[in-house]
Design brief:
Structural class: alpha/beta
Number of helices: 13
Strand content: 5-15%
Helix content: 25-40%
Strand order of the largest sheet: 9-8-7-1-2-3-4-5-6-10
Bound molecules: S-adenosylmethionine, iron/sulfur cluster
Shape: globular
Radius of gyration: 19 Å
Largest sheet: 10 strands, mixed
Length: 362
């Protein structure tokens, strides 16, 4: 099991080596995206799943393979998003996966579309040891929601989330830390705290949501290039910084292939393969080292077309720390201070940077 302080120390080292532009790294990653399945029951307009030509290659990771990856990762990884480009609750072994990661000392975190939360699933979630759950609910009216979350039914998803929250309240438990996330797709006319938004949030009055997260959609690197709607803002050359994910994390698709980040649903920019190599080997293999170098040299497009125009290359820094790295550092810190402190930690951060997109609930 990874020593939590060692993971935090590696997060600090990653900032040092990122600033120094080291490309062969003398430490291991601290965070994983580990995808149980890339399959999804929705085709949200904000998500590359809506434009994938074929889902033939999208698979389910066998439990044995998941365990093998977690066994190795548990030596150095502190927490992991158990999703990437699909809906993880579609995997028949998802609760065994969550439990396995948790027992091995990797904090399991999940985002879900909440469409398939049956009573049985809700009970399993509370038993599984899941540390963090974020419900993706894009829209404050039936019309808005169903236009974005194609294939979902507004009333049914709300019913599922409310059922989950009522059960959490009944059980009196703090875990999992619960987030309600909404992507704003009408950004030109959106007014924060508008009447519809307020009315929508009253549905969850007196229910144990820990955080409300209101964000604008990105374009998944260069993946959602079929529409102007999700193009990143015009950004200037001067604000460019290499993608910090490559200094702190690894992303693994359900077929075992390692990709640079969670934007590469189809393995377009494959870095390595966990079927044939260990995570440690892949972390500093030739492709990974060359890719980091290309980030430093700004020639990344040769290595990965998805990066072209990706918001993470121009994202504003937090306390001088690039966005992806700041998120991973926060997770490493949470491992040490305990996820029960997540609320207080985030409240403190929000005081430092009030423009952050989340609101922590009392
Ligand atoms: C790809 S989804 C996978 C997990 C699950 N299927 C879900 O929808 O929550 C992961 C996260 O990406 C978010 N997401 C989807 N499209 C996005 C976009 N264009 N910009 C920012 N986040 C996006 C989803 O809301 C979700 O929180
Ligand atoms: S955002 Fe989530 S639910 Fe929607 S299509 Fe993508 S993976 Fe599926
Ligand atoms: S720049 Fe964007 S697309 Fe490229 S690796 Fe980083 S997050 Fe992924």
């Amino acid at each position: 099991m990874a020593n939590k302080l060692k993971v935090l120390n590696n997060s600090v080292r990653s900032l040092y080596h990122y600033n120094k532009k080291t490309v062969k790294l003398p430490y291991l990653p601290q965070f994983l995206w580990l995808e149980p399945t890339g399959q999804c029951n929705l085709a949200c307009v904000v998500c590359p799943n809506s434009v994938l030509e074929s889902k033939e290659n999208i698979t389910y990771m066998p439990l044995g393979q998941f365990k093998k990856i977690v066994d190795e990762a548990s030596e150095f990884i502190g927490s992991a998003f158990l999703f990437l480009g699909g809906e993880s609750f579609l995997h028949k072994d998802i609760f065994k996966m969550i439990r396995y990661a948790e027992d091995k000392g990797i904090r399991p975190l999940i985002h879900t579309n909440a469409t398939i939360l049956t009573d049985k699933y809700i009970e399993e979630i509370f038993k599984s040891g899941l540390d963090y759950i974020s419900f993706s609910f894009d829209g404050y009216t039936k019309e808005q929601y169903e236009k974005v979350r194609v294939g979902a039914k507004y009333e049914k998803t709300i019913e599922n989330i409310v059922k989950f929250l009522k059960r959490k309240k009944e059980l009196g438990v703090k875990k999992p830390y619960t987030v309600l996330q909404t992507l704003i797709t009408d950004s030109d006319t959106y007014v924060p705290g508008n009447e519809l938004e307020q009315k929508f949030h009253t549905i969850f009055d007196d229910l144990p949501i820990d955080e409300v997260n209101i964000r604008f959609p990105h374009n998944w690197g260069n993946t959602l290039n079929n529409t102007d709607q999700y193009k990143p803002k015009t950004l200037t050359e001067e604000t460019y910084s290499p993608c910090s994910y490559l200094w702190v994390s690894m992303s693994i698709l359900a077929n075992g292939k390692v990709v640079p980040c969670c934007f590469d649903f189809e393995g377009e920019c494959e870095i390595g393969d966990t079927n044939t190599h260990s995570l440690k080997e892949i972390w500093n293999n030739d492709k990974m080292v060359e890719f980091r170098q290309s980030m430093v040299d700004q020639t990344y497009e040769k290595h990965c077309g998805i990066c072209k125009g990706c918001v993470y290359l121009w994202h504003e820094k937090t306390l001088g720390i690039p966005m992806g790295m700041a998120t991973v550092m926060g997770q490493s810190l949470m491992n040490v201070i305990g996820s029960g402190s997540e609320k207080y930690f985030k409240q403190a951060l929000k005081l430092i940077q009030p423009e952050f997109w989340y609101t922590v609930k009392q």
